[in-house]
Amino acid sequence: MNKKITELFNIEYPIIQAGMIWVSGYKLAAAVSNAGGLGLIGAGSMYPDVLREHIQKCKKATDKPFGVNVPMLYPNIEEIIQIIIEEKVPIVFTSAGNPKTWTSHLKEHGITVVHVVSSVKFALKAEAAGVDAIVAEGFEAGGHNGREETTTFTLIPMVKQKLKIPVIAAGGIATGRGMLAAEVLGADGVQIGSRFAASEESSAHINFKNTIVETEDGDTHLTLKELAPVRLIKNKFYNDVQELYKNNPSVEEIKELLGRARAKKGMFEGDLEEGELEIGQIAGMIQDILPAADILKNIVSEYNEVKAEMF
Length: 311
Known about the structure:
Elements: H1 4-9, E1 15-17, H2 26-34, E2 39-42, H3 48-61, E3 66-71, H4 77-86, E4 91-95, H5 103-108, E5 112-117, H6 120-128, E6 133-137, E7 143-144, H7 152-162, E8 167-170, H8 176-184, E9 189-192, H9 194-197, H10 206-214, E10 220-223, E11 230-233, H11 236-245, H12 251-258, H13 262-268, H14 292-310
Parallel strand pairs: 1-9, 2-3, 3-4, 4-5, 5-6, 6-8, 8-9
Antiparallel strand pairs: 7-11, 10-11
Helix pairs in contact: 2-3, 3-4, 8-14
């Protein structure tokens, strides 16, 4: 396996568990880190005091490196950054914002910084901002996404061609075969979200986990681009959004339908009708709910087996 990412983060395998909102608490992050990958706590759905609690619990649950994912569009960003520095978190993944804003400040405190992008343009801006690596995420991914709808298979080689820093592939990867394909395209490592959302340690509601397992090809769609593009499982809420679009709604009307805490309602509280259910297209390949360590072990095992067969 490529050593750029394992050496950058001081981990065994170049596999990063995505810091997903309402899914990636300290239990999942610690489990992935203990198994040899890099676990990320998802700060986007946490109040600052809750984030601090998760960081402290993660420190007790693992002696391996872990990180925090920080969507910069969320409120309390300054307080969140300060907590990360105070708690001496070694790695931060930033997303949904300008990497120039916090990269140098974090690096001044000895923190390794990675930024999530959906295009070559933003990858170059992230590299210029001084990040240590980037996550190039294709539109197959779940959660908040890029507006360009560039697929992982086209995005990775285009980004790799332009950048000098390590590239981590994300979007549509949940297996060893997917990991190997990303590597062949030029990725130095992979970030995996949906597969870990359906893990025993995921903080997602069991209703949502079971729905992930039941999801098939074509059951998700990228929508709400006027606000922040998000890939959703098609349920009642999703259908309500599509009905609203028939009337060419204003941004204010879309916000009114979305309301508040819609993602929490779906993924954390388990409301499968009115909740927002964010997941990637790869959910169609997820057939079970497993311990995070087993998921990582299966990915590495399949990667090694397929690579040996093909090369």
